Amino acid sequence: MGRIVNPPGVVSMTRIAEDVVELLAGSISQRQARVTVQPDLPAAHGDAARLQEVLQNLVENALKFSTPDRVPEIEIGFKTVGDQPAYFVRDHGCGIAPRYHETIFGLFNKLDPHSEGTGIGLALVRRIVEFHGGTIWVESGGPGEGTTFYFTLPGRKALSSGTD
């Protein structure tokens, strides 16, 4: 689960983000959401299919956990952290209390037991990012404050040589 199965290479994160928005067009339209992709996201090195899974899962969660009385607004972008880009998916949805910021990445950990899904999505996202040698974290002021998921992908040298 979350392992690289395709040969890693240089990946256009802008293209991956655009593909995710296109792939989720039905859900985005159904929720009447506004999804923006920051132009010129820095390229990454990795397995394009797995990195698409990361962004797709994060955008799906942003749609799923949006606030019912507001039009969902989701932004895919990056900011520089240290000397590397930290990609992000930001929403203004229901938010996550700080005490859950680490536990949400556990396998089968669901904050809302009534929500759809199995509780493996964020665990899978973390595994993919970490397999690429990166880190992932969440920032949210708590309920009603929205959520931003950040992840780094440090580049070619950090990738495992295995393709299992």
How would you describe what is shown here?
Helices cover 27% and strands 23% of the residues. It is built from 4 helices and 7 strands. It has helices at residues 13-23, 25-30, 48-64, 121-131; strands at residues 9-11, 34-37, 44-46, 73-81, 84-91, 136-139, 147-152. It has a 5-stranded mixed sheet with strand order 2-4-5-7-6. It has a two-stranded antiparallel sheet with strand order 1-3. β6 and β7 (147-152) form a beta hairpin. Mean pLDDT is 83; it is low at 107-115 and 157-164.
Fraction in helix: 25-40%
Regions with little confidence, pLDDT below 50 for 5+ residues? 107-115, 157-164
Radius of gyration: 15 Å
Termini separation (Å)? Answer: 10 Å
Number of helices: 4
Query: Total strand count, please?
Result: 7
Order of helices and strands: EHHEEHEEHEE
Strand content: 15-25%
Which tags fit this structure?
single chain, 164 residues, alpha+beta, five-stranded mixed β-sheet, two-stranded antiparallel ribbon, 7 strands, 23% strand, disordered C terminus
Short account of what is shown:
This protein has 164 residues and is α+β, with helices and mostly antiparallel strands. The chain is built from four helices and seven strands.
